[in-house]
Amino acid sequence: MNYKVESVNPYDSERPKKEQVTQMFDLLAPTYDKLNGILSLGIDEYWRREALSVLKKYPHSHILDIATGTGDFAILANKILQPDKITAVDISDGMMAVGKEKVKTKGFENIISFENLDCANMTFPDNNFDAAISAFGVRNFEDIDKSFSEVLRVLKPGGVFMFIELTTPEKPPMKELYQFYTKKIMPLLSGIFATEQRAYEYLPNSIGAFPQGRKMMLILKKNGFRNIRLRRLTQEITTIYIAEK
Question: Long-range pairs for 48-53 at CB < 8 Å and ≥24 separation?
């Protein structure tokens, strides 16, 4: 099945989404962390902490961090959960290069490792990870069903898949504030920082096309997950999804 978000691309409709997303994040990598914090008004770390706290009651010795980007979620997971190992995967070498430097500076190299892998086609054996996590990466997937099936495959029985995604508020006044921010303020800020503006046009478009709430829960169920639930944060701007194998 095709989902609308899978056809929302940063640049054009001719090339595969994976190729375009890789190009976009390679270009964004040098300024991504700084601008991301500004655009989220600093709330993104709170969202990540709340999401990771969900995993405390599950086994989490070996964690897979999908679409790790510059590694912030993996680094925070190490701090909060203290696992034995975190394997971080992404399709952007540029983003992971920044992440590797941060991990090296913090002395976490023996715990956090990076691999260039598409989560729709991972090379890990079956039943390999206690938990899989992702922060704001699922809407960038080229094939959600295939990716979810792969996540299910590499999780151990009883393992948990937890991811955070930005969502579109449906109730006023947050709905109107969100639209004003994404259409007016976000492009202005990205222009001030001379960054890849098309990426910040892609951002609200991909959020708007992303299956949200019950629709996402049904997609997880269709792909074999169970005990699926969600938690909304900050007036529905962000949603945490939790699903078990």
Answer: 48/72, 48/73, 48/76, 48/135, 48/164, 49/76, 49/80, 50/231, 50/233, 50/240, 51/133, 51/135, 51/162, 51/163, 51/164, 51/240, 52/76, 52/77, 52/80, 52/81, 52/133, 53/80
* CB contact set of 117 (below 8 Å; sequence gap of 6+): 89, 90, 91, 123
In the predicted structure, residue 195 carries a pLDDT above the cut 60? no
Q: Is the overall model pTM greater than 0.85, yes or no?
A: yes
Q: How far apart are CA 232 and CA 21, in angstroms?
A: 26
Question: What is the CA angle 77-82-86, rounded to 5?
Answer: 60
| Mean pLDDT to the nearest integer, 84-100 | 98
Cα–Cα distance for residue pair 7/177, rounded to 1 Å = 26
**What is the distance between the alpha carbons of residues 135 and 69, in angstroms, rounded to a whole number?**
9
- Name the residue with tokens 């600093």: 42
Look over the chain and give the mean of its residue pLDDT values, rounded to a whole number: 92
> 159: which 2 tokens?
């393992």
Write out the E strands in 59-209. 62-66, 85-90, 112-116, 129-135, 155-166
pLDDT tens-digit series, residues 114-167: 999 999 999 999 999 999 999 999 999 999 999 999 999 999 999 999 999 998
Domains of the chain in start order, with CATH, are: 24-167+209-244 (3.40.50.150)
Question: What gap in Å lies between CA 245 and CA 226, rounded to an integer?
Answer: 6
The rounded distance, in Å, linking the Cα atoms of 181 and 204 is 10
